[in-house]
Amino acid sequence: MDFDMIARYAPLLLQGLWATIYITALASVIAIGLGLAVSLLNATPFRAMRWLCRIYIEAMRGTPILIILFIIYYGGPSIGFTFDAEPTGIIGLGIYGGGYFAEIFRAGFQSIPEGHIEAAQMLGIPKSRIITRIKIPQMLTLIIPPVTNQVILLLKESAVLSIITVAELTKNTTGMVAETFAVVEPYVIVALLYWAVVESISFLGRYLERKISYA
Amino acid sequence: MPDRNVNINEDVVAEPDVVIKTEGLQKNFGELRVLNEIDLEIRKSEVVCIIGPSGSGKSTLLRCIAFLEEYSEGRVFIEGKLLGYKVVHGTLVRESQSNINKVRRNVGMVFQQFNLWPHMTVLRNVTDALRVVKKMDRREAERIGLETLRKVGMEDKARYYPAQISGGQQQRAAIARALAMKPNVMLVDEPTSALDPELVGEVLQVIQDLASEGMTMAIVSHEMGFAANVADRVLFLDEGRIVEHGDPAQIFKNPQSQRLIQFLDTWKSREL
Question: Which residues of A touch B194 (CB under 8 A)?
């Protein structure tokens, strides 16, 4: 291991690490918001709406993230959307993840016992309040483990953003490889950095799970 | 949807003492007729127990009265008001959800599985509808909530989550949740069937107290001794029909139909 070289490239790697973290965070926020909205719309009585939701979910789950990024990055300008690489990456990762989160939320809503809803109906609580006060809070406690998992997957998928030149951890690492011709050090370091972030996310997930269990 | 073309002009019947009334109530699940021609009247302060073998339609009857199930034929009136439908130009039209909610507000329901919301404390379970539906401020809602919990002997568990208390305590909290809304009638669906035997008594006691305070109730129960004690009237349901009804002494001491005699025999042999 050439520790001198690692020290020289540390700022570049840390900068990439930071980019990876905030890109994943922003993409997760978009994906969770989108997923929640789609899962709620998917439960409405309007068949056309449910159909659209289904198409979105299946398209996101059936398409590699790289293809989605290419479509936005290279196809976007032809219909008047021109984004820089980084926003493209965040949006692409966000809408890609939204399809998965929608399924997680759907499963979460389905595992709420029907009786809990009936009890609320019998008290005269309006439907919208049943969603915000009873369904969503209960659903959130049920889905913390799969959500944690999905955020970890998004973090790792974000490495693909290097292909459309987003200066995130993987991209900066390949830059380091190109300049130094070293292979072992950069890739070992980058693997360790990803692993550290993944562990932090699972730790946070377990913490939330403990914190929100009502027993 | 009940028969749309029945020629009725009113969705209100004026019988001030009748809290619940069903006329020719029928419920089908596909081909299966679960309730058949149920005519029922429950008057103010009356306690009616509904007994019968499992699958006889007891719970479905309560659920139709609560409009948790849409009935297939007939009518249900709550305090003289047609439930779930309104009459427009002589035909029945599905009532808006907010109007259904308005009628339901006077109907309390107690479920076999308690159905407390696990993410809220006992007190919040009781106060949530007061705040959302009755628009009370927090202090007022909590005052009423604690008062109601005291009634069922659960005041000291107000800050616990449902998972932290026993089944009997959960059911008492669920009763308090329904009571806090000051309903005019309580529908009680097998309140002790999900409980360990030693917890049954505390729940039945609470229901008995309510009965003696004059609460109007329809209770589905497997506890025959309790039914005999608390009921003003007992209905025996079998295969979706009211086979026999009368005061408890008559039903339990002097059953007429073969089906009821059989049912009571099975129950007696189980008790021994």
Answer: none
- CATH number of A132's domain: 1.10.3720.10
Average pLDDT over residues A39-62: 91
Query: A125 and B174: CB-CB below 8 Å?
Result: no
Mean pLDDT of chain B: 88
Strand partners, B49: B219, B234
Residues of A in contact with B111 (CB under 8 A): 115, 118-119
**Distance in Å, alpha carbon of A122 to nearest chain B alpha carbon:** 6
Give domain status of residue B137, yes or no: yes
Residue type, A26: L
Domain hosting residue A116, numbered range: 3-211
Structural domain tally of chain B? 1
**pTM for this one?**
0.82
Residue B1 maps to a domain: no
On whether residue B167 sits in a domain, the answer given is: yes
> Residue A121: what pLDDT?
92
Which residues of chain B lie closer than 8 angstroms to A133, CB-CB? 128, 132
Residue B216: pLDDT above 50?
A: yes
Residue-range definition of the domain harbouring residue B122: 117-183
Mean pLDDT of chain A: 89
Q: Is B3 among the domain residues?
A: no
What's the pLDDT score for residue A215?
Answer: 58
Interface of A with B (CB under 8 A): 113, 115-116, 118-127, 129, 133-134, 137-138, 141, 212, 214-215
A113:B113 CB<8 A? yes
Q: Do A137 and B161 touch (CB under 8 A)?
A: no
User: Which of the four pLDDT bands, split at 50, 70 and 90, describes residue B243?
Assistant: very high
Total domains in the fold of chain A? 1
Inter-chain contact B161–A215, Cβ cutoff 8 Å? yes
